[in-house]
UniProtKB/TrEMBL annotation:
<feature type="domain" description="NAD(P)-binding">
    <location>
        <begin position="7"/>
        <end position="147"/>
    </location>
</feature>
<dbReference type="InterPro" id="IPR016040">
    <property type="entry name" value="NAD(P)-bd_dom"/>
</dbReference>
<feature type="transmembrane region" description="Helical">
    <location>
        <begin position="451"/>
        <end position="472"/>
    </location>
</feature>
<dbReference type="Pfam" id="PF11066">
    <property type="entry name" value="DUF2867"/>
</dbReference>
<dbReference type="InterPro" id="IPR021295">
    <property type="entry name" value="DUF2867"/>
</dbReference>
<keyword id="KW-0472">Membrane</keyword>
<protein>
    <submittedName>
        <fullName>SDR family oxidoreductase</fullName>
    </submittedName>
</protein>
<keyword id="KW-1133">Transmembrane helix</keyword>
<dbReference type="Pfam" id="PF13460">
    <property type="entry name" value="NAD_binding_10"/>
</dbReference>
<dbReference type="InterPro" id="IPR036291">
    <property type="entry name" value="NAD(P)-bd_dom_sf"/>
</dbReference>
<dbReference type="InterPro" id="IPR051783">
    <property type="entry name" value="NAD(P)-dependent_oxidoreduct"/>
</dbReference>
<keyword id="KW-0812">Transmembrane</keyword>
């Protein structure tokens, strides 16, 4: 079967892609920027990639006409606190226009459980998209999921941050809202099993795990699985805005996502039936089993995708290629170089930079910079990295975005996503003479940008000097 996979570089899409290939399907991945499709060359060689921005009017012949089915996995909740619902409606309408030019038979849409009468803006938007897709000239299968638990999912990472960092919590009253979490492994199973199944055509199904829990119970059960205790007290005085700031500063989530999540957490998200799991004979994992599975992936360095790698987890919304050419004029630079004896070892150190490894010198200073960035509404250092020693273009790396990661040419190029009065690049490159070049480039925005650069020159002297020496040490 030939399948169009939209949102191919998203958290769900990255996990669904290898499963579909393993099942023998031909996959056409629709992404806004081909350079950002963070998969190994082995997978890229098996797929067709098309660049499409579903917020723009679709162009004719932009996808193959012989598409049999498609997955609609496009969401915009993290990109805006105001008009994400309009953006999601626009993408759904443009999707319908695009696939109307093909021979498509089925579309599978991953939505949210919408059984409460008073829906949040987020869930109302998902329901609106569902209604738009039902107008398409194809058979629609809608899977309505609750909280998705898996390594790298926003829900799991938020719960993990809260529990690991705060043994004692004063929480808003929405932690008493009921929800029905589902393991990411089960979501992928449902998504693949409904493909081509005529019994699921033109119908919407709830998918969820077997446990109905409050958010407070989810936090307690996470602690149980991890082998420690936590104490949680709820207070009625914490407003949605204060709750959003609380999530933003304590966890790795962005403020936009935190605000939209808090709005949704006031609504019960509980499945109303088990029709689909009975039809497909699927027995979903329990919440505790979902946490166990997540940590097994983390411990084995097998985290396939993370919500943090989404472009909308940072400030950087344009295509990567716009920033790959580092400017030469009107910029300020800190360039250091050093001869290395073993370039392969040095290259591995470069590819392991950030996250748990740190920045090889003055990590406490990097942490202070990350905290300051959070205070001013930036991403901070909490995003870390998905894998300890693998990097792809488009990945988040603490408060940087990976622009280029070319081991063959021994070059890593990062673009800053922290709050700055300008634009910043950090490049590592080993040349043909085994000389390591470390270059920080800053394009200031006006006088404020130049004052910022010169104010941190003394810190650069120690931090960048110590960093290159520790990376190159024998």
């Amino acid at each position: 079967m030939k399948i169009l996979l939209t949102g191919a570089n998203g958290y769900i899409g990255m996990r669904l892609l290898p499963q579909l290939l393993e099942m023998g399907h031909q996959i056409v991945c629709a992404v806004r920027d081909e350079a950002r499709l963070s998969v190994d060359k082995e997978i890229k060689d098996q797929i067709e990639i098309v660049e499409i921005d579903f917020l723009e009017e679709p162009k004719e012949n932009s996808i193959p006409k012989d598409i049999d089915a498609a997955y609609f996995l496009i969401h915009s909740m993290s990109s805006s606190t105001q008009d994400f619902d309009n953006m999601e409606a626009k993408t759904a309408n443009n999707f319908n226009k695009l696939v109307s030019q093909t021979n498509i038979n089925q579309v599978v849409y991953l939505s949210g459980i919408v059984n409460d009468k008073n829906l949040s803006k987020h869930l109302q938007s998902r329901k609106n998209v569902e209604d738009i897709l039902y107008q398409g000239n194809y058979n629609l299968t809608v899977l309505r999921a609750g909280i998705i638990v898996g390594s790298g999912s926003s829900s799991f990472e938020i719960i993990r941050d809260l529990c690991e960092k705060l043994p004692v919590m004063i929480t808003p009253k929405w932690v008493l809202t009921k929800t029905q979490p589902i393991a990411i492994r089960d979501v992928i199973t449902f998504l693949t099993e409904v493909l081509g199944n005529e019994k699921t055509y033109n119908d919407s199904f709830d998918i969820a795990g077997p446990n109905v829990l409050t958010y407070k119970e989810m936090l307690h059960k996470y602690a149980e699985v991890r082998g420690f205790k936590n104490w949680i007290w709820t207070v009625p005085v914490m407003t949605p805005k204060l709750s959003s700031y609380w999530l933003y500063f304590v966890t790795s989530t962005s403020y936009k996502l935190a605000l939209n999540l808090v709005d949704s957490m006031k609504i019960e998200v509980v499945a109303k039936d088990t029709r689909l799991q009975d039809l497909l004979n699927i027995q979903p994992h329990t919440y505790k089993e979902a946490i166990d599975l997540a940590f097994k992936k983390i411990e084995q360095n097998l985290v396939v995708s993370s919500w943090k790698d989404s472009m909308i987890s940072g400030r950087f919304l344009e295509n990567l290629e716009k920033h790959i050419q580092v400017p030469k004029y009107g910029v300020l630079k800190d360039h250091k170089k050093i001869k290395v004896k073993n370039p392969d070892i040095v290259l591995e150190r470069i590819w392991s930079i950030g996250g748990e490894t740190g920045w090889y010198y003055g990590n406490w200073l990097w942490k202070i910079r990350g905290f300051m960035d959070k205070l001013f509404g930036g991403v901070g250092l909490r995003r870390g990295r998905t894998h300890p020693n693998k990097i792809f273009a488009g990945d988040s790396l603490d408060f940087w975005r990976v622009l280029l990661a070319e081991k063959k040419s021994k070059r890593l190029l990062l673009f800053a996503e922290m709050k700055l009065p300008g634009e910043a690049w950090l490049e590592f490159k080993i040349d043909e003479n085994n000389v390591l070049h470390q270059t920080a480039t800053f394009r200031p925005r006006g006088l404020r940008g130049r004052l910022y650069w010169y104010s941190i020159v003394p810190f650069h002297y120690f931090i960048f000097g110590g960093m290159i020496k520790n990376i190159a040490k024998q």
